[in-house]
# Entry
Amino acid sequence: MALLEGKVAVVTGAGRGIGREEALLMAKQGAKVVVNDLGGHFDGTGQSRSPAEDVVKEIRAAGGEAVANFESVSDFKSAKRIIECAIDNFGKLSIVVNNAGILRDRMIFNMSEEDFDAVLAVHLKGTFNLARHASSYWREQHKNGNLLNGRLINTSSDSGLLGNAGQANYGTAKAAVATFAIIVDREMARYGVTANAIAPVARTRLTIDATPQTAATMPTPKTGEVDKFSPAHVAPLVAWLGSDDAKDVHGEVFRVGLGTVWLMKGWHSAAKVTQSGPLKFWDPAELGAKIKEQLASGVTKKEGLADVLTGRV
Ligand SMILES: NC(=O)c1ccc[n+]([C@@H]2O[C@H](COP(=O)([O-])OP(=O)(O)OC[C@H]3O[C@@H](n4cnc5c(N)ncnc54)[C@H](O)[C@@H]3O)[C@@H](O)[C@H]2O)c1
# Structure
């Protein structure tokens, strides 16, 4: 039996790039798929039906089942209709992949309010919107004795996990969607749901058109070689996380791409300075001296996307 037989998945932003590969693979693995895509430019302007329609055609041509949806994830009511699209067409909803994304890179001193708001609206609000409607549905179904093993997979980024200059809007949203998965998992585990996040690395429109300096570090393969930077390397992890087999994976964040999956670990207690004797208020200079003496060794070298692309991590 295929891994996702009997499952119904929504993949947002599935008309291109990583989402397209996720939708194609999930359909190949037996899931019925809602291919959502607004079909706009990489900065979020414009719209077109053809990216989502083309992916649906591709899935159907391969013998799979899919429907297209062209709504924006950033609108709360539209997001509800994306969830309803799955239930109306395929009778239920099992998996939500929050993948839709745009970029509007600017240094902080040049970033307009609109560039900040537009990026947060798609990545952060969009992720909340889909998760909110799916979670109330999964909870309701669970109360009625219908165990759907709901799966939420958010798309974060190295920019959010490690920080990247020029992306104060995008990185902030991507850090938030990773934490959001951890929180939703803690709330929804009792209803049989898991929530996790991925940080993909792939050559797509977002790298080629929006961050050409990153795309330049991703060479195209020689004839006959598997493309190291293909977005198809991301999809297998997402398909597996969507399956019943991944029931014990809760609130994790994975970097994925280049044929590798990294388990990422975020904020945690690394070292401390503390007092001995009766508790007192620190003298700030005394505290600073202790921090320099006792915590300096806990300050690690900062990891960046360049370390991933050159294989250093
Ligand atoms: N490519 C990478 O290396 C990389 C790295 C880290 C994170 N990501 C994330 O992966 C996800 C997919 O990006 P990609 O690289 O495949 O880019 P992409 O531009 O090829 O695909 C993103 C898709 O999302 C759609 N979309 C945008 N706004 C939407 C909205 N409001 N509602 C519905 N659909 C919308 C676009 O039309 C587009 O088809 C994004 O969340 C991106 O931030 C990508």
Q: What stands out?
A: The chain has a mean pLDDT of 95. The longest strand covers residues 194-200. The CA atoms of residues 203 and 229 lie 5 Å apart. The first helix runs from residue 17 to 28.
